[in-house]
Structures are given as structure tokens and as C-alpha cells.
């Protein structure tokens, strides 16, 4: 009997346009494990913006080529080594190795590179639990001492991180002002974000309108701003922040540099910070990450953190899913299914 599994992975041999450089390749995975190793079968993995920029070679770090795509997903334990104590066959896990992609069928990991996941979660929630909800959670927890009734303002509010910010903030009784770009279905999107728990949803042009004065009759000015757009959008957030407020940048979708008025520093004492979830994960113990995932899971199980709008796409149809994920104004998360 063979001791090796035939597996497939979605890989790239060079950086570039994901539509051009990604390909499905066959590789073998050993079923003979070292005592501390665990064989897993991937169940599902989303296609995130970070995956796309990583494949293009413009991310904050690069995998060694050839590389397997994908950085987030959920898997099932198939087999454990003789000394493994904390995982059992059938358990759901999140692979957290930052040098090994997970768009594949099977993989072998040591215990320290897996985090436990509650297998009673919906598959879509478990598959999208490691990147966007933790990013939202950490930004709400780590920069400003937010109290019940505090206000957060964010751009890119319809992004997966933005939706997680809305819901986690709602869980902690924090107000949110959520800025989105105008679009043909803007009223439908506003309603969707409001149903998630947004306090206010506005389009970018409304940042320079009397709408803001009306908002601040009901809630205090934001002490925390979250920026994933950059350019002019970030500057407009700052105009409405409380003195001494903190703007945290975690993305640059506009590909424009931050445009901050010096007056905001001098008279309003605005502080600028950056946040990269990968760096947090690499500088904090696994136990702290597990604790965070457990708390986020509890919010999910209370029905207070829904997964983004999504669709499952068969692994073999990855090209279709990748292309769809890069279309403008896409609100539907593409999740690769390996089952």
C-alpha cells in the first residue's frame, strides 16, 4: 500500500497577474508522520485581497518560488503523529504557517502551526476566521481604550474587514461611522451594512456635507479612525476625528499616499499608526492567537458576527474565482472548496 497521498495545489512559479501565473499542480504528501506532525485535509479557503497582491509580488513579504497561493482557510485533521496530544482526527484547524500557502488538498504541519477551530461553526465562518475578523478585533482593541458609546470612523466599510469592524464594534457597544464609495446599488449596500449593526453609513461626498453635523448631534466624535484606502479619503476621515484621536492605516486600496494636513497634527494632535496582521501574528505567542480566535468564535456563535457575503467555488474552478475576486465593486467573497 502506498504511503503517499496524491494531492493538488494552486501554485505560481513567478510573480505577476494571478489570471496568468496561477496553475494547478500535482504533488505527493507523505502519510508517514514524525511524532509531532499532523496530516490535514483542507476544507475551504477564501480568496482575499492580500492573496492577490502576494501573487503579484507587491505584498509586505514574499513566499519562496514556486509558491502555493492562499493564506487563510480551515482544514480537518486526518492523521496525527504518536506524540501529538492537543489535536485528534476529525478536529477542525487553521494552518498558520506564514511561509506555506494553503490552496491545496493536503498538508503536513507540526502542532505549533495549527490553531483549533470549533467544528460546529458554519464552514464559511470557519474558513474566513483567521484574517479579517482578527484584523478588525485587534484594531478595535490595541490602539485606543474604547469605551461603550465611543465612536469609530472607517473607510472601505463594505470590505470584509469593514464588515467585521461593524459587527465586533456593535458587540462591544461602540458606535461606527462607515464610509463607502458611491455606486449604482448604494442604498442596498447602506441597508445591508446597517443591518449588520452600523450606526451610520455614508458615501464619501457626505463627509463634506451637513450630514456630519447631524451625526455628531447624536454620537461623539470618533477617537479612532480606520483607513484602508489612503489618499484623500484618509484626510477626510481625520477632519471629523476628536482631538487626540488615532488613525490606523491597514491598507492602501487607492494606491495613493496619505494626504494629511499638518494642521491636524498641530492643533488636533492626531496620531498616525499602521497595522499589519501578519506582523502581529509573528510577534505574539500562539496561545494569544488561540485566545483571540476563541473570543471571536464566541461572537460568531452568538449570531453577532456573520461571514461576508460569499459563494463556494470548486477547487478546479479556481481561475473563475480568482478573476471574479478582482472585479471592481465585488461584495461577494470567493471561497475555494476542497471537499
TrEMBL record:
Question: In Gene Ontology terms, what is a biological process of this protein?
Answer: fatty acid biosynthetic process
Chain ranges of the Enoyl reductase (ER) domain: 16-336
User: What UniProt keywords are attached to this protein's entry?
Assistant: Fatty acid biosynthesis, Fatty acid metabolism, Lipid biosynthesis, Lipid metabolism, Mitochondrion, NADP, Oxidoreductase, Transit peptide
Location in the cell reads: Mitochondrion
The superkingdom of the source organism is Eukaryota
* Catalytically driven reaction(s): a 2,3-saturated acyl-[ACP] + NADP(+) = a (2E)-enoyl-[ACP] + NADPH + H(+)
EC number(s) on file = 1.3.1.104
Q: What is its main location?
A: mitochondrion
User: One MF term in GO for this entry?
Assistant: enoyl-[acyl-carrier-protein] reductase (NADPH) activity
Please name the InterPro entries in this protein's record: ADH-like_C, ADH-like_N, ER, GroES-like_sf, Mito_Enoyl-ACP_Reductase, NAD(P)-bd_dom_sf
Q: Name one GO cellular component term.
A: mitochondrion
One short Pfam name that applies is ADH_N
Q: Which family does it belong to?
A: Belongs to the zinc-containing alcohol dehydrogenase family. Quinone oxidoreductase subfamily.
Indicate what this protein is called per its UniProt record: Enoyl-[acyl-carrier-protein] reductase, mitochondrial
